[in-house]
Inverse folding.
């Protein structure tokens, strides 16, 4: 049996297979976090005769690295409308315009 400790409540775990699933991707913002650490515990459901009939359990620390997605559209002020012109014979790689 698998058990998950996730204080952010971003993941859930299948108690039988240990499969992790994202349940709230809004809590996985790369701009706020580089990685997340979760603690997963396992417990044998049946006593093991090799261990005098005791149930075995153990924790594992799992680190999940977050990748950045282009989830924030750029905005410019005073407006989002810009006009640039380029000559027909401009060299490849020429600067056409610049937005700051």
């Amino acid at each position: 049996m698998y058990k998950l400790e996730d204080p952010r409540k971003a993941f859930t775990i299948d108690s039988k297979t240990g499969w992790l699933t994202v349940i709230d991707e809004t809590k996985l913002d790369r701009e706020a976090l580089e990685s997340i650490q979760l603690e997963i515990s396992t417990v044998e459901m049946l006593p093991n005769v090799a261990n005098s009939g005791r149930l075995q359990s153990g924790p594992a620390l799992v680190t999940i690295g977050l990748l950045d997605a282009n989830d924030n559209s750029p905005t410019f002020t005073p407006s989002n409308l810009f006009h640039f012109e380029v000559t027909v014979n401009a060299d490849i790689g020429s600067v056409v315009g610049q937005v700051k």
